[in-house]
Design goal:
Catalyzes the phosphorylation of D-fructose 6-phosphate to fructose 1,6-bisphosphate by ATP, the first committing step of glycolysis. It is built from eleven helices and eleven strands. The chain is an alpha/beta fold and 319 residues long. The chain folds into two domains: 182 residues, Rossmann fold (3-Layer(aba) Sandwich), CATH 3.40.50; 111 residues, Phosphofructokinase domain (Rossmann fold). The structure holds adenosine-5'-diphosphate.
């Protein structure tokens, strides 16, 4: 292998830059040339590809987002788009590719591998929705961003004796709401994995008020509804002062946490090491803080286990 490519695809996540930096620097350390592919699979189709040297990744380890840009590229899913991408890969003499993204991006990586281009996936998404790995790149930073917001909202809501609904990202996976709820002392956590009825929500809030709680926090994953509709549903049932905060894209940005910088650096270097050694069609993950690799098809088949223990703990600890 003489030349590899690296791209970021799907939603951006803090720590992607640390991973890009590690891919580039590790590969150069092994005398391999690295090409940066811009805006995910779109860059492959449009031949928007640039040579990366040591200084091209200088001063990025602390930055959120991705210096390569990212996109959702429907054209890559079509035969015509995919073939254009293959032509450009061959034209640029790219021997293997590292894809940093989520499960959709891994589907693309799988197809490239099947077409004879060794490809390695690095899990990059704030949602932590890839079942085969304990943590995805960006999740830890997003969690800390949410916690910071919860702390700020707590200050003001206890002064005003309010209940707050905080809506966070997570369409199918409630990890951001669950773990920020546990770490932030939320009274109620509403996530796709554990549907909850309105009576239980209202009883929990009322019980807290009766005990003299000055405020309460309801964490809501976007996949479980809308903060303002939930507010209406609760206030239709009983008289309570509720405010809504929809955190939105603030969760995707920001300087990556120490954890995500370390994870990105380790995943990036391991990805480059494996690719340079001829391995392809695998994704990287962590278990007990050790990095492992797994066949892409196997990894994508694994279903996410719900952390029932953490969910129950939020209820017990917010009594
Ligand atoms: P994520 O990687 O964060 O899950 P998406 O699901 O939006 O994000 O996927 C990112 C990109 O990966 C898509 O825009 C597309 O270019 C590519 N992709 C997704 N699914 C497939 C697929 N089945 N085949 C080929 N490419 C795909």
């Amino acid at each position: 292998m003489r030349r590899i490519g690296v791209l970021t695809s799907g939603g951006d996540a803090p720590g992607m830059n640390a991973a890009i930096r590690a891919v580039v620097r590790y590969a150069i350390y092994r005398n391999i040339e690295v090409l940066g592919i811009k805006k995910g699979y779109k860059g492959l189709i449009e031949n928007d590809i640039k040579h990366m040297d040591l200084s091209s990744v200088a001063d990025i380890i602390h930055r959120g987002g991705t210096i390569l840009g990212t996109d959702r590229c429907e054209e890559f899913k079509t035969e015509e788009g995919f073939n254009k991408a293959l032509d450009n890969i061959r034209y640029r003499d790219i021997d293997g590719i590292i894809v940093i993204g989520g499960d959709g991006s891994f589907q693309g990586a799988r197809k490239l591998s099947l077409a004879g281009i060794p490809t390695i996936g690095i899990p990059g998404t704030i949602d932590n929705d890839l079942a085969y790995t304990e943590y995805t790149l960006g999740f830890n930073t997003a969690l800390n961003t949410i916690l910071d917001s919860i702390s700020k909202i707590r200050d003001t809501s206890s002064s005003h004796e309010r209940t707050n609904i905080i809506e966070v990202m997570g369409r199918n996976c409630g990890d951001l709401a669950l773990y920020s709820g546990l770490a932030g002392g939320a009274e109620v956590v509403i996530i796709p994995e554990a549907p909850i009825d309105m009576d239980t929500i209202c009883e929990t809030i009322m019980r807290g008020k009766a005990r003299g709680k000055k405020h309460s926090i309801i964490m809501l994953a976007e996949g479980s509804g809308n903060a303002y509709e939930l507010k209406d549903a609760i206030t239709n049932k009983f008289d309570v002062n509720i405010r809504c905060t929809v955190l939105g894209y603030i969760q995707r940005g920001g300087t990556p946490s120490a954890y995500d910088r370390l994870l990105g650096s380790r995943l990036g270097a391991k990805g480059a090491e494996l690719l340079v050694g001829g391995t392809g069609n695998v994704v990287l993950g962590t278990k007990d803080n050790v990095i492992f690799n797994m066949d892409i098809d196997e990894a994508l088949k694994i279903e996410k286990q719900f952390d029932y223990e953490a969910y129950e703990l939020t209820k017990i600890l917010s009594m």
